[in-house]
Write a structure and sequence with these properties.
The complex is a heterodimer of chains A (847) and B (261). Chain A has 21 helices and 48 strands. In chain A, strands 5, 6, 8, 9, 35, 36, 38, 40, 41, 43, 45 and 47 form a twelve-stranded mixed β-sheet that branches. A ten-stranded mixed β-sheet of chain A has the order 4-3-7-10-37-39-42-44-46-48. In chain A, a hairpin with a 5-residue loop joins strand 13 and strand 14. Chain A has a domain of 73 residues: Roll (Endonuclease I-creI), CATH 3.10.28. Chain A has 847 residues and is α/β, with parallel strands linked by helices. By secondary structure, chain B is an alpha/beta fold. Chain B has a single domain, classed as P-loop containing nucleotide triphosphate hydrolases (Rossmann fold). Helices cover 31% and strands 28% of the residues of chain B. In chain B, strands 6-9-10-3-11-12 form a six-stranded mixed β-sheet, with helices on both faces. In chain B, a hairpin with a 2-residue loop joins strand 11 and strand 12. Chain B is globular, with a radius of gyration of 18 Å. The chains are: A alpha/beta (847), B alpha/beta (261). The interface between A and B is large, with 41 and 44 residues.
Chain lengths: 847, 261
């Protein structure tokens, strides 16, 4: 069987054409493949002490000798091409103490990753792993004063040789397993942490890891020592947050953007998203507000590029529109942001909609004619559908002309000859009713179920300006007004269209851009009136003339004796809107979102063009084989949190283990969502009386993924206790395995262990296996094991759906409930993100 | 928009309904009509098909309509999924509500309300909506943070069903043996919940096999169901007759015997 394809969609020539990664500028890049000479070379280059070289060589020896594991997923394991992997890539010559010293290229990447200088002030510590080595690193001063050491592993080895020598490889020796041996031979980077006696670090220490080069192995090595009575939490992960992105055809919060979706780019094209990124960000966050759209505020990191135009004169509109990319720092008040205008035209003669009808589905064909567009305009403004099979148009008594227009359009475009009028004497209205279940369902499907969800379907958004003009005419006649009055400031003249649908409001504004009109968008909150917010699209100034032409109302070319003017401008490519306000605030661990877009590497967020932030992308597989050793000295508390969301072509083969001495507690919170194959079994050796170990893990395997995860608890002292809770979810062809070991040595009296593993299967082809092992050599113990495998319950699903939840939503809710014990244990912002990630993974779970 | 003529038509019209579960026919030509403003009681022995009818009304995928149809507000329900039915105003209070561990009642009910209303329900508005119902049903606020039906007593489960019914405010409420296994106080609370829902716009179908609940909830019509069809319909006096005669007295002569399980 061929190996599953990574779900990243990349053009064949991607790298050459659009590669956004920093040109590889490694000072040293080992030849692919591994031999003893390379291990020696690596150690020599790093200037390591002899004992470390010795350890590396032992690791290499064991790596060569040990066979590939013949369990878990041998097929995937055997597909790893070890000889093609670059084992070491040293990105820069010397590690930097301060941000300024970091070489520009790498800084660029890291800025994009969002690890700026300012972070020092907020984060307890950050160590960023770029390819093999940690290159930038910072820690809060007060922690430093208390003697907390947080260094990258290489620096740790140099600055704290005794500590490192004493503990390195003591929990996971070179001979432990093939991958730990490989890591011992080739390790680079990772974190070294020492928390002195009695020091309690309240804030989680954290690190980012990231694989940049293709076929690059990432072999980081982490060693954490919590001295007597010390407490520390360490979080490793990759996380994410966002703005409305102009997708095709809707607008979505950025965090909901998925690979494969099409978004509008700065070049006014809809292109595919080939990768999404999410991460926590600490540092300044800029809020940019613009004139003309009060509904959007863009929040971006310091380095996020915008497409903009510098203002030429303070009190006059620009005459030249030279666009450039600039970061928020470059932007000034009243500079112009560029709003790309979608110029794609795809004209069709008709469209087909499939609707349920009398227990089957039927196809309804609708014409794509100018007349139909006007009819749709009327419907968007005044229409509604009734599930019983009626389409209503609500008009005022006096709008006879409109009623006749709708009737004739119905006849011409849809062949509907019968539309009944029902007067509404109380509100002076007339209801025009078309009785057709098929049409009502088609309209419902195309244009949204209710006033608040009205929308223009994608194909109509791309139609010709001639047809779209008719749509605007219909909407305007239905929901618009022309304000033309004199007040104390002179005459005021403005065209307005109102709607309660946020999507429709934005779409109308975008269609108007195609028609050469820049409109303002405003939102009025009517919560105090217990009503939906109202959106107003307003057109004034010089654009009123153009709009007037569109809808057939003549307006004068001057106003109050002056030529009509506007603060906005529009040309072939962009509309230009001035910046109203830029504010800056400092944030800590806030999720930020970004994604990569084919070709243009940009997208439209909050209506304006922004460049994609970070996107080295390679199609070939990567190997991540880390080793993490934790040492909790007597009465220390150590918690290690991992949220692993590697891209789905990474082999994640990681060895993680801890030693807990007398009265100490070690907790592993381990969540695996990404990677193609993960094999990870965090363990705790309970070596002293009263030591406690806990593993709480969640694994989520989607199509083609295999999460083989579990835990190991070794009870080697009396009164020790352990808890293993494993929750796994398999979706599509995803596969999860629980593999666990509980071992109790003779003499470990009163040892207690509870193992609980629950698996949830979402689809018939999903798979889950459980491989629990118990080796109990002591009689006076309490051991409990419980395992459940459940299909997502038909009865649960039916119950939730009977309460109005859609199938997808019901499933997500059941899954979120399932992993609730894990999520509850996370810091709040991670918990929120975790739910969001699950939501994303759950999309498409139905059907 | 409701046209006046709708008032005369029944809210729910079940016509010659035949339903099979895994190939076995359970309902065999059931007719039932409930108009807005009415409360009907459906009584019958175990195994007569009462719960099958209730699941079928809600659209459980396991129940297959082999003949006949169900019309709700003139619309044939056959192609509609349970959530679409719910959003059109149908509610089923389950006899055995399902637990959803890890999901709080607050989250669940808010999602349900969002679904039924077809738009977001801000937290504050949600609280204001739920609060009076909690009070009326004597449910403490902390209840909202418990997981849906997870580790609930029988009485708690039934109370939660009534709470959901009250909050979602359906047009057609079907209560499947909501009275079973309740002590007298809980029964009164449930009855009060049902009575509070009665209104000229709503139809209510109470499924029960004891007359007990009908002491507190006055039906406009009582139907006796046996072997998958309705064998007799009448006023509230029918329930009393049933109490004295037992179900056997209602079995149509010549009908097959041996269904009760």
């Amino acid at each position: 069987m061929s190996t599953p394809k990574p779900n990243v969609q990349i053009n064949e020539d991607y790298e050459k054409l659009y590669g956004f990664h920093v040109p590889e500028h490694a000072v040293f890049k080992a030849e692919p493949g591994l031999d003893e000479g390379k291990v020696r070379q690596l150690s020599g280059m790093k200037g390591e002490p002899a004992w470390m070289l010795d350890l590396r060589l032992r690791g290499f020896h064991h790596y060569r000798r040990k066979p590939m594991p013949q369990w878990a997923n041998t097929e995937l394991l055997n597909s790893i091409k070890f000889d093609d992997i670059y084992y070491y890539l040293k990105p820069t010559e010397k590690k930097s103490e301060s941000w300024e010293e970091v070489p520009a290229e790498i800084k660029e990447t890291f800025d994009r990753l969002g690890i700026p200088e300012a972070e020092r002030k907020f984060l307890a510590g950050v160590s960023a792993q770029f390819e093999s080595e940690a290159i930038y690193h910072s820690m809060r001063e007060d922690l430093q004063k208390q003697g907390v050491i947080f260094l990258d592993m290489d620096t740790g080895l140099k600055e704290q040789p005794e500590l490192v020598k004493r503990y390195f490889g003591t929990v996971i020796p070179p001979a432990d397993n093939k991958f730990a041996a490989l890591n011992t031979a080739t390790w680079s980077g990772g974190s070294f942490i020492y928390v002195p006696k009695g020091v309690k670090v309240e804030m989680p220490l954290q690190a980012y890891f990231r694989i940049n080069a293709k076929n690059m192995g990432q072999f980081e090595r982490t060693l954490i020592i919590a001295d007597e009575g010390a407490e520390v939490t360490y979080i490793e992960g990759c996380f994410t947050k966002g703005a409305l992105v102009t997708t095709n055809p809707d607008y979505k919060p950025i965090e909901q953007i998925k690979v494969g979706e099409r978004v509008l780019t700065h070049a006014g094209q809809y292109r595919h998203v080939y990768r999404t990124q999410e991460r926590p960000y600490s540092g300044p966050l800029y809020t940019v507000e613009m004139y003309g759209d009060s509904t959007q505020r863009l929040e971006v990191t310091a380095e996020h590029p915008f497409l903009y135009v510098k203002r030429e004169r303070a009190n006059e509109r620009n005459r030249h529109w030279d666009v450039q990319w600039g970061t928020p720092k470059d932007l000034k008040w009243r500079d112009y942001l560029a709003v790309p205008v979608n110029r794609i035209t795809e004209s069709v003669s008709s469209t087909k909609v499939t609707v349920p009808f009398r227990r089957q589905s039927e196809t309804v064909e609708l014409p794509s004619t100018a007349g139909f567009f006007r009819l749709v305009g009327y419907f968007l403004a005044e229409g509604s559908t009734d599930p019983r099979g009626y389409i209503h148009f609500a008009f005022g008594e006096t709008e006879r002309e409109l009623i006749e227009d709708v009737k004739s359009l119905l006849r011409q475009t849809l062949g509907v000859t019968k539309a009944d009028e029902f007067p509404h004497p109380k509100n002076h209205g007339i209801n025009l009713v078309v009785s057709s279940a098929k049409l009502a369902r088609a309209f419902r499907q195309l244009f949204g179920e209710s006033a608040g969800t009205r929308r223009i379907p994608q194909w109509m958004m791309l139609e010709t300006p001639e047809k779209q003009r008719e749509l605007i005419v219909g909407v305007f006649r239905g929901d618009g007004n022309y304000y033309n009055q004199r007040n104390k400031h002179g005459r005021k003249e403005i065209f307005r269209i109102t709607t309660v649908s946020p999507v429709l409001a934005r779409q109308v504004r975008d269609v108007l851009l195609r028609l050469g009109v820049v409109a303002c968008l405003n939102r009025r909150d009517r919560r105090h009136e217990h009503r939906q917010a109202m959106y107003t699209i307003g057109v004034g100034g010089e654009f009123a003339s153009r709009f007037g032409e569109l809808v057939g109302i003549q307006v004068r070319s001057s106003l109050n004796g002056k030529k009509r003017a506007a603060m906005f401008a529009i040309d072939e490519r962009y509309a230009y809107v001035p910046i109203k306000r830029i504010t800056k605030r400092l944030v800590k661990n806030t999720p930020v979102y970004n994604f990569s877009v084919e070709g243009d590497e940009s997208y439209v967020a909050g209506g304006v063009a922004v460049h994609n932030c970070t996107a080295p992308s390679y199609s070939s597989d990567s190997l991540h084989s880390a080793v993490v050793e934790l040492i909790a000295l007597p009465h220390a508390k150590l918690r290690y949190v991992t949220i692993q969301n590697w891209s789905k072509n990474v082999y994640n083969l990681v060895t993680k283990r801890a030693i807990a001495h007398e009265g100490a507690t070690v907790e592993w919170l381990d969540c695996n969502m990404g990677s193609r194959l993960t094999m990870k079994f965090p363990g705790v050796y309970l070596m002293g009386r009263g030591a406690r170990g806990e593993v709480l893990s969640v694994a989520f395997a989607s199509d083609g993924q295999h999460q083989d995860a579990g835990a190991k608890m070794i009870h080697a002292a009396p009164d020790t206790s352990s808890v293993i809770t494993s929750k796994s979810i398999s979706k599509g062809t995803g596969r999860t395995s629980y593999r666990g070991l509980v071992k109790v040595y003779p003499g470990a009296v009163n040892a207690k262990s509870t193992v609980r593993c629950d698996a949830l299967l979402l689809n018939p082809e999903s798979r889950s296996d459980t491989y629990p092992t118990m080796e109990i050599d002591e009689k006076r113990v309490q051991i409990g094991h419980e395992a459940t495998v459940s299909k997502i319950g038909d009865e649960q699903l039916f119950y939730a759906m009977s309460r109005g939840l859609k199938e997808q939503e019901a499933m997500s809710m059941i899954v979120n409930g399932f992993i609730e014990p894990f999520v509850k244990a996370l810091p709040l912002e991670y918990a929120v993100e975790m739910n969001r990630l699950v939501q994303l993974e759950m999309e498409g779970a139905v059907g | 928009m409701t046209k006046e003529s709708d008032m005369d038509r029944p809210l729910l019209a079940v016509e010659d309904l035949h339903v099979a579960v895994e190939g076995k026919e359970i309902l065999r030509g059931l007719d039932l009509s409930v108009s807005a403003g009415e409360l009907h009681a459906l009584m019958g022995p175990n195994g007569s098909g009462k719960s099958t009818l209730s699941f079928c009304l809600m659209g459980h995928p396991k129940y297959e309509i082999t003949a006949g149809r169900i019309r709700y507000r003139q619309e044939d329900l056959a192609t509609l999924s349970p959530d679409e039915r719910s959003r059109r105003g149908i509610f089923l209070a389950f006899q055995y509500p399902t637990a959803i561990p890890g999901v709080t009642i607050a989250n669940f009910l808010r999602a349900a309300l969002r679904g039924v209303r077809g738009g977001d329900v801000p937290v504050k508005e949600f609280r204001q909506t739920v609060k009076p119902h909690l009070k009326a049903l004597g449910i403490p606020d902390a209840f909202m943070n418990r997981y849906v039906n997870d580790g609930f007593s029988g009485g708690e489960k039934k109370r939660l069903e009534i709470l959901q019914m009250a909050v979602l405010s359906p047009l057609l409420a079907v209560l499947d043996e909501t009275d079973s296994g309740l002590d007298i106080d809980a029964l009164k609370t449930v009855a009060a919940g049902i009575n509070a829902l009665r209104s000229p716009q709503r139809g209510i179908l109470v499924i029960t096999h004891y007359q007990r609940l009908l002491n507190y909830v006055k039906p406009d019509a009582v139907h006796v169901m046996m072997d998958g069809r309705i064998v007799r319909s009448g006023g509230s006096e029918l329930a009393l007759e049933l109490e004295s005669k037992g179900y056997e007295g209602f079995r149509p002569s010549g009908a097959s015997v041996g269904v009760g399980s």
